[in-house]
Amino acid sequence: ADVAVLCGGTTSTEMQDRPNLSVDQEQFIVAVSKGISTAAKKTPVVTLTMTPGSVVMPWLKYTDAVLNIFLAGHCEAALGHAQDFFWAAHSNPVRAVDEGPPSGGHLVAGTREK
Question: How much of the chain is in helix, strand and coil states, percent to nearest 5?
Fold first, then answer.
């Protein structure tokens, strides 16, 4: 394949907290992306997640690109290697302990080609 696209998501309901910041397919995404990234013939890996807010992304070091579309019609944020600076209402840490207290917005820094 030219590229591997791994999809995952989670949902929530009003007036009830999510039990964790993981997508339902977290173990699958980690296992497959890690396997692909360590294979002799490396296939680029893209993860696509649909979430109601922040999620942890323990697969991040094994992927080439990440797209979290949040919930349709809610917000879109793309995180990549050639990203300009922008304000995101949500953060997507590698681990839940990396998530700080709510602050109303986080500056997401990327690299900018000159």
Answer: 15, 25, 60
